[in-house]
Hints:
Blueprint: H1 2-13, H2 17-29, H3 37-49, H4 53-65, H5 73-97, E1 103-105, H6 112-123, E2 131-133, H7 140-151, E3 159-161, H8 168-179, E4 187-189, H9 196-209, E5 215-217, H10 224-234, E6 243-245, H11 253-259, H12 264-279, H13 284-294, H14 300-310, H15 315-329, H16 336-356
Amino acid sequence: MKLEFAICLEKAQEGDSEAQRELGCLYRMGLGVNKDEAQAAKWYQKAAESGNIKAQFYLGRLYEEGLGIAKDEARAMQWYLKAAQGSQSLVAAGLRANTTLMSIYLGHNRIGVEGAQALAEALKTNTTLTSIELYYNQIGAEGAQALAEALKTNITLTSIDLSYNEIGAEGAQALAAALKTNTTLTWIDLSYNQIGPEAAQALAEALKTNIALTSIDLQSNEIGDEGAYALAEALKGNNTLTSITLYANPISEALINTFCWRNEALTQAAELYALFLACFPTEKEDAYLHLKEVTTSCTQKPIVRFFQMAGKLPDDVLQGLAYQVYDQTRDFIPSKAKASAANKLIKQLRAEDSVSNKMKAKSY
């Protein structure tokens, strides 16, 4: 071990960053030399300044814990970020050459703008990756714009998660422009990005011509009634989208109640969901299993995706939806017992609606 230390020291003094990092480890653990955290910090610092990613991470930890160096959380974060950005550059370089990788998960890595730009360049030439998750990475509008450019030429990616990335209106508008020409992406998550109504309108324009996307998540994006109305109008001519999530947006109840009727696939799922609300108002899981048995004319994906969306809507909105579609779905009810239970629920809803004057009910 002492021989290893001597060789490592010689190479480190010559400026070899990997030897400097290794020397820091030897001092840190007391291998071949007396344990000395101050010396460990010194050699980690040298290696980190030379761009050694592992040393940057280890130095960040020493700053965070105050080992061998004065505790400084701000500097710790700086070195952690440099290590993360360097790692993402290596990942991007690997993606440019890799011919087998199909999925990559990079959530919670703080890759920032530079990391997103590096990945975007890789996506322009990569021909195998189909799924990428980049949630919680602080890529901002610039990072989203870089990825949008990549989506204009990439022909293999089918899903991308960009939630919690502070992309804002500019980033979302760039992605909307990409969706107008992209023909492979089927799923995109833009939730919690504060995109606002104008960006929602831009996405709506993209949905009018996009023929590939089946699911888009726009939770908590402050799209308002203007953005929601634009999206609803876009669904009139879109026959591929089966799921759109608008949870936690300031949208009026009237728009939510009518939203799904703009699109055939979503309408079908809404009718089925309303049916099992009527049959099993307190047992949603049993109701879904029942639907799997009695519905042969509908695919399962719209049912599942709408259930995930509708489960987050207010109870009164769901009840209104069930009320509106009950007459259209009666033929699916397989037994008198379930029909009786459904009738009882609907009558209750009608009574409540009459009292609240929220909806005009026609009599049976």
